[in-house]
Structure formats: structure tokens, C-alpha cells
Amino acid sequence: MNLFTRRTNDAASLPFEGHLPGFDGATGWLNSPPLSPADLHGKVVLVDFWTYTCINWLRTLGYIRAWAERYEDQGLVVIGVHTPEFPFEREIGNVRWAANEMAVEFPIALDSDYGVWDAFSNRYWPAAYYADAEGRIRHHQFGEGGYEESERVIQTLLRDAGEEDVPDDVVSITPDGLEAQADWANLESPETYLGSAQGQNLAREAPDQLALNQWALTGDWSVERRASVLTAGDGSIAFRFHARDVNLVLQSQEGSIPFRVLVDGEAPGDAQGGDVDEQGNGTLAQPRLYQLVRQRGPIADRLFEITFLEPGVEAYAFTFG
Fold first, then answer.
1. Can you list the positions of beta strands (E) in the chain?
2. Which residues, at least 6 apart from 15, have a Cβ–Cβ distance to it below 8 Å?
3. SS3 for 203-233, per residue?
4. DSSP code of 182?
5. For the whole prediction, is pTM greater than 0.90?
6. Which residue segments constitute the domains of the chain, with CATH numbers given?
7. φ and ψ at 315, to 5 degrees?
8. 177 DSSP assignment
9. Cα(75)–Cα(164) distance, rounded to whole angstroms?
């Protein structure tokens, strides 16, 4: 048993970080009736802030889901607080669809007006807060990682609440798809927004002249505050990247829109992402994060291009893994 395990077996060693503020600011609930602090008294609570297009949250989901299932009968309650980043994530139908697709079966507080976010003074996606049976926050995790530490905290708080036979080991999972952990050793491209409010590295060069992490538009695009919008005809986005995965947050203004992905001017083949075939063909339908490239071979600087065959595309942000 290592030093960390010995320390967290004692709940008194965990700090006090305030009390759970509650969820009065929620605009609705999925998978559960509204939950209040009184409903949660005597339970260990994990509050998980997320938004369904966030790749950083998606890479934590396998662990959150596994803990919800493993410890539910011993008194753990997981509450997902869905606080939207992009406008379409405010629509309850989109969140309900995403929760179903991602097997998010624990209670979800819809936080479209940021009321719960502000009550927690939260600033991050993802952010997880761990509270004991008295409603006191004893641990937090901002961003990815810290999985073993966080599960040890859950175990400690459950034992402190009087639960017996709490496991001593931690879950072992092998996430895939969008939930697969990033290839951190080869990740040299940052999250990049495509709207004027936060966008950077938009270049005027032709795609084959782009420097690493620059991007360019071809066709009739309008760079609006939150997104680049294809206004007429077909159009392309190019990005020179260095990463295993290329993901892009997309929405269609009306109907489904076909697209094609190229890597270094060719069909991706076995570097295809989960949302395209080997020839790079895919369809924009649901507003969400699309996985367009997942490389299986050596990682180097490469040129990504996506061409949309019809207007009405809203492109919000690239993320990489």
C-alpha cells in the first residue's frame, strides 16, 4: 500500500472546501427528479460539470460512468451538471440525445443559464467535486487525470459514511472512440476556436503553405463571433496539425450536409476517424463533436482538409488527441 492510499484511508486527512451549494439554478433535469441537498444527505456525492462536445470531458466519462455503476449501491450519487459552451448545447433535445448516445444514465442537472456553475464558482470543463455524507466538499479535480486519486477519495468517503465492503482496488477500463485517452506524447496542436471571439491562427496562405497550427478557409465563409459559417456553395477548412486525432465541433443550419476529409491531399485510409469512412466521406447531421482523423501510425506534421458540399455549415472548434 503506497503513502497516498494510507493517507486517503483517513477521511480526516482530506481538506474541507465548503458545502455543496445545491442545484436551485438548474433549468431542468434528465434521468431524475430535481435533487436538493436534503435529498442527498447521508450520500457521498460526485458533481461532474460537463458539456457534451468537450473532448476533455469525454475522455473522463469512462471513469465517471464506471464509478457511478460500481459504487451506486454503496451510497455514491453522481450528478452531471450540463453547462453549455456552444448555443446548440442549450437545447434540451440535443442534450437528451447526447446523454442517450453516450450512456450517461446518472442524474443530469441542466444548467443552461449557468446558475449552478456560478453557485459552485466553477470555471472549467470538466470539473468534478466530491462531497461527503454531510454535504461538505472534500476534493476536486479540474481537467483530465487524477483518476486513481479521485476513486480513492470516493472509497474513503464511503467508508467514513459507514459503508462496509468498499473495494480496495480501482477500476480498470480501456476507453475507445472519443473517450480514448489522448496521445499526450505526440500532441502538439491546441484546441482552436473558429469564431472571431476566440479564434487565432487563421491564415491567408493557401492550404499547402500553412505553418503548424495555422488554419485557412476556402470558399464563401463568414467568420462570425462563435463560428465560421459557410454561406454559399461548397467550401473547405484546412489545418496543419501534429496529433493522433482531429476532432471538429459542427452544426448544420438546415438538414444533413455531406463532407469529405483528406490528409496530406489523400483519403485517410486507416487514419480515418470514427465519423468518416476510409475514403474520408461523412455526413454532418446532429450538432456535436465529430472525430475525423485517428492515426494508427507514426505522428508527424500533416495537413488536414475537410470539404463541405453544401452551405449552412457552422464550424466552432478543433480539438486534438
1. 28-30, 44-50, 76-82, 108-110, 127-131, 137-142, 192-193, 215-223, 228-241, 245-252, 257-263, 281-284, 288-294, 302-308, 313-320
2. 138, 139
3. CCCCHHHCCCCCEEEEEEEEECCCCEEEEEE
4. P
5. yes
6. 3-179 (3.40.30.10), 184-320 (2.60.120.260)
7. -110, 120
8. G
9. 11
How do residues 137-169 score in pLDDT, each as one tens digit?
Answer: 999 999 999 999 999 999 999 999 999 999 999
What is the residue type of 22? G
> How far apart, in Å, are the Cα atoms of 185 and each of 10, 200, 243?
35, 24, 9
Residue 209 neighbours by CB under 8 Å, 6+ apart? 203
Question: How far is Cα 123 from Cα 125, in angstroms, rounded to an integer?
Answer: 7
Q: How confident is the model at residue 9 (pLDDT cuts 50, 70, 90)?
A: low
- The enclosing H or E element of 115 equals helix 115-119
Neighbours of 143 (CB within 10 A): 14
- By 3-state DSSP, what share of the chain in percent is helix, strand and coil, each rounded to 5? 25, 30, 45
**SS3 label, residue 3:** helix
> Three-state SS for 66?
helix
| Nine-digit cell string for 30 | 434528465
